[in-house]
Structure formats: structure tokens, C-alpha cells
Design goal:
By secondary structure, the chain is mainly β. The protein has one domain. 2% of the residues lie in helices and 67% in strands. It has one helix and 13 strands; from the N terminus they run βαββββββββββββ. Strands 1, 2, 3, 4, 5, 6, 7, 8, 9, 10, 11, 12 and 13 form a 13-stranded antiparallel beta sheet that branches. A hairpin with a 2-residue loop joins β6 and β7. It is elongated and about 80 Å long. The relative contact order is 0.23.
């Protein structure tokens, strides 16, 4: 087995399922739940935006730096370019759907009220691996499919609480509070499929990987039960061949 190439690039995915986004859900995630939220919301009610992402509970962005390994084939007395193993590290940024509450009174005569918005984000670092089979479609394009997985752990996370003072339907002032969150562990299983593209008739040093990353995420957040979520992602990576 020898190192064949290096790959670097992002993938963008939608997480279809998640914990319910409410104050009751967010409070146990904060490192100081007694201080969350920082503003009295007893008289407020939940606001459902007119436009929201109904297909996903979170947007997941991954950036991967991978090493690709190829295997020696004794029958061919050389290395087999139809099978590859990738191993590397992956940085993940997750932004959950936002949660909003409003103190707007029911009476249309009162045009002064307060809104509170909660934006939850987290960053993760972990390991990535996959094993794929490749088939040459022509000298410039390869099709691949396989199976893979990743393991990630939270390196930072926060809930940003923004309070807006509304007068005549306009924000006249805002206050922001940052709430650090507890840890989260993710295990992902996926089926990478896509194409490798090369720019010359002979295999060049630089190419591009364009593919999809459907799969499942097993998510465990501190103080909350684990859950499983389907995901669908798109991957774009640059490839640098060493041989």
C-alpha cells in the first residue's frame, strides 16, 4: 500500500432531523443553564417565521484534508487504481435552525414590544475515512462509489441570544448575550458517490472530486438523548497526485 494523492475541500450537507428547538431544549445544553436565557421570556410566545427551511434542522459544512492510499496487486505486479482508501481529518461547522420568541401584544394599538432570537452554532473536529471502487469512463473522468464514516467531537459551541426593542415595527436597539454550550459527539455513516475529473489526456497532477454524500448521523448531546438523522451532502475537493 502506498500514498497516492492528497485531497482538500468542503462538503455542504443538510441534517434532516434534530432535537426540538425550544427554550426547554436549549437550556440543558448551556454550561450555565441558570443564566439562560438572560432576559425574562415568561410573557413571550414562540414565533414561527413565514419562510423557514422545512427540509432540514441544521446546515452542516465540512472541510476535509485527506490522504488517499492505493493497494498493490500481485497479479498485475503493480498498484491497483480501481480501489482506494482515504484517511484524514475533518473540521465541521453546524448551524441549527433559529428559534424566536416575541412579546408583541395582541392589540394592534400597541406598537412597542420586544423580540428575542436564539442562534445556535458549534464547531467539531474529527477523523474521516472511506473506501471506494473506481471505474474509468474515459481518460479524463472516473466514476466512484463506496462506503465511509467519520467521528467528530465538539471543540466549541455557543447560543447567541439577541434581544431587539421594536417600535412601530422597527428595531431601535439590540442586546446580545453569548452562552457557551456543552459537548456533542457525532458518528456519521455515508455512501460517497461521484466523479474524479482530470484536465488532460494523460493523468495530470491536479484533479477535482465532485460527488454526493448521503448517509446517517448518530448524534449525542450532553444532557439529551441520542438521536439519528438522515443527511444529504455535496462534496467538492481538489486532488494532488503524488505519482
Amino acid at each position: 500500500m502506498r500514498l497516492k494523492n492528497l485531497q482538500l475541500g468542503p462538503s455542504f450537507a443538510l441534517q434532516a432531523k434534530g432535537q426540538d428547538t425550544t427554550v426547554a431544549h436549549l437550556a440543558p445544553l448551556t454550561k450555565d443553564p441558570q443564566a439562560f436565557p438572560n432576559w425574562n421570556i415568561d410573557t413571550m410566545h414562540t414565533v414561527k417565521p413565514l419562510i423557514q427551511m422545512g427540509l432540514a434542522r441544521a446546515i452542516v459544512t465540512n472541510v476535509s484534508l485527506l490522504t488517499t492510499w492505493e493497494f498493490y496487486n500481485p497479479r498485475k505486479k503493480g498498484y491497483d487504481d480501481r480501489k482506494e482508501l482515504k484517511i484524514g481529518i475533518e473540521y465541521t461547522y453546524v448551524e441549527n435552525n433559529r428559534f424566536s420568541m416575541s412579546g408583541k401584544p395582541k392589540s394592534w394599538r400597541d406598537t412597542t414590544w420586544d423580540d428575542v432570537n436564539f442562534r445556535r452554532t458549534s464547531a467539531h473536529l474529527g477523523l474521516y475515512t472511506d473506501f471506494v471502487f473506481k471505474k474509468a469512463l474515459n481518460k479524463k473522468m472516473y466514476f466512484y462509489f463506496g462506503a465511509g464514516g467519520s467521528l467528530a467531537y465538539t471543540i466549541s459551541g455557543r447560543i447567541t441570544e439577541t434581544k431587539g426593542d421594536m417600535v412601530n415595527y422597527k428595531v431601535v436597539s439590540t442586546e446580545k448575550y453569548e452562552h457557551p454550550t456543552l459537548s456533542r459527539r457525532d458518528i456519521s455513516l455515508f455512501l460517497p458517490v461521484g466523479f474524479e475529473l482530470w484536465g488532460s489526456k494523460n493523468i495530470s497532477r491536479v484533479g477535482m472530486n465532485v460527488g454526493m454524500r448521503p448517509g446517517l448521523m448518530f448524534i449525542k448531546e450532553t444532557n439529551l438523548p441520542a438521536f439519528i438523522s438522515p443527511t444529504m451532502g455535496v462534496t467538492i475537493r481538489l486532488i494532488y497526485n503524488l505519482h
